[in-house]
């Protein structure tokens, strides 16, 4: 069956299509009810199925005779450490850490927040939660204390699991002070914190609250997995929306397991025993799906890489890892290859390594720009697959199929993330909700129902699911992306239609940055917009209007504002372009004209909206912003 036949089947009869795919999963109780509607009028998959996601990722493979196979490789150029865990070894460690959590009175449905660098203990903590039916919420290590506090308040974790430090290129970041500050700021207080002490930093443990990971593991016993319902949440993962408050995307267990196994087979073409490397971070959805769950559920070997594409130690780092562990498919963000290409434009490092195991490269997190696509194609001579997805979907919506029906891979196209994956009914609508002809840009939507594995709800805010995704076009899920589908059915994602930006593959909200800047006593008003960046894809640019009578120097103020973004959101926000201006262009109703600002900064032709309050401000700003762009 080729992709379009599969797609047709999945769209005409989603129930029978996904009933068949659900057979990939070793359920404790196989589902009889495939698709249903819940009390929030949202669809649910496999409601009467029972399973355990940790069992599927670990114990199942031991039972199948793969206990001695390597499940997880830890490769850390920033510390010089390398370690490998077989499926049997990882199962034992996870079963013990489940006991550590259980001793903290954590049980099914409770939340555990995980704030960890890229070390195996992050995977162990996540899987131990899944083993107990406990909902984990992993927070990316690059987020600052304030972001952590927001997530603590929303998820209300009983326990926080963390490490003494994270390690960036040439700098050690102690985590414990950030955790202590976050708990101090948060209204909700966790019962305990379990801290993995790394040799680079010894964290100070607070009496009666903090526990040492290793001491607890030394006295732990192995705990078996518990059965959970298909619809029970596996995890909450916070992502940026258009407002300052991040959205807690909830993933179920059953639909997720089906989607993981389906995608590992059909999108990535992986078999048990293969090595799949998602060079991302466990704090992002890519890490959840393809460093941990999908890769392990499929019986593959996964890699936790604590390093960067460049400078750890050089631009050959990715190729070194691929050669050393015979990686069969590599998945990363385009920004990583832009960084590699910048340092090694001729691809000289490629020649130093035997990459004969590597079959394909997968890219996501932002659009793979045609220049990087062509560079990669030429230098590696491998299929380069740009595939499009979101935290909300948890797996790819569009990707070039591996089989065109004759056993060959379909052709990839520069700038396109491929046709919709079978199971996603992707359409392009205009502002009136009408489908647009091929080649014409519009809002990219997915006709309901979404396939298994996509967001179950927004944690503690199901209304936000409705208002954020479902109300614009009834019957469709709004992706927030704009783009078009060409004559051959290939999707081209051209960028967000809202205030979300993608900085080095990290999804950030400009609205949230504006909230932080506005909180400064000297700021009258401000705007943050995403501008194109050759390395990171996009970078935020902030424009600030100061209150009358403020005496602080501009340099001092800019430095304070930059620091407030680092302290509140984190260094990953990279708000380095920050400028003080006299006025912002606004509509008569007071709305800041962000699109006009972007056009001005990027030197594009400005469409002056008829609703503008004072067109003189455009003339004033144009010169200033054109200069900023040149810098
Ligand atoms: N913990 C703490 N700080 C972190 C961090 C983490 N996990 N990750 C990034 N940071 C900090 C960095 O140290 C840096 O701080 P600085 O401004 O004080 O130097 C800042 O956040 C920006 O970091 P980064 O976005 O990594 O930019 P960079 O210029 O250091 O590196 C790249 C550029 C392209 C090499 C890097 O962005 C990269 O590897 N990107 C791939 C991203 C990715 O895999 N995304 C996953 C999507 S699938
Ligand atoms: P995140 O939820 O962090 O994975 O970010 C999701 C957003 O990243 C999408 O809505 C897109 O805007 C963007 N994105 C992810 N993958 C791609 C891709 N392959 N092509 C274009 N944009 C992408």
Outline of the structure:
The protein has 19 helices and 30 strands.
Descriptive tags:
631 residues, seven-stranded mixed beta sheet, five-stranded parallel beta sheet, alpha/beta, binds adenosine monophosphate, 24% strand, Rossmann fold, 2 domains, binds coenzyme A, 31% helix, GMP Synthetase, Chain A, domain 3
Q: What top-tier CATH class of the largest domain fits best?
A: Alpha Beta
- The whole-number mean of residue pLDDT values reads 94
Which strand-content bin applies to the residues?
15-25%
Helical content stands at 25-40%
Oligomer kind: single chain
What gyration radius follows from the Cα positions, in whole Å?
Answer: 24 Å
Low confidence ranges? none
User: How many helix segments?
Assistant: 19
Count of individual domains? 2
Shape: globular
Fill in the CATH topology of the largest domain: Rossmann fold
Spatial strand arrangement across the major sheet? 5-4-17-16-18-19-20
* Largest sheet: number of strands, sense, barrel closure: 7 strands, mixed
Terminal Cα separation, in Å? 54 Å
Class computed from helices, strands and strand pairing: alpha/beta
- Which distinct ligands sit in these coordinates? coenzyme A, adenosine monophosphate
The total strand number stands at 30
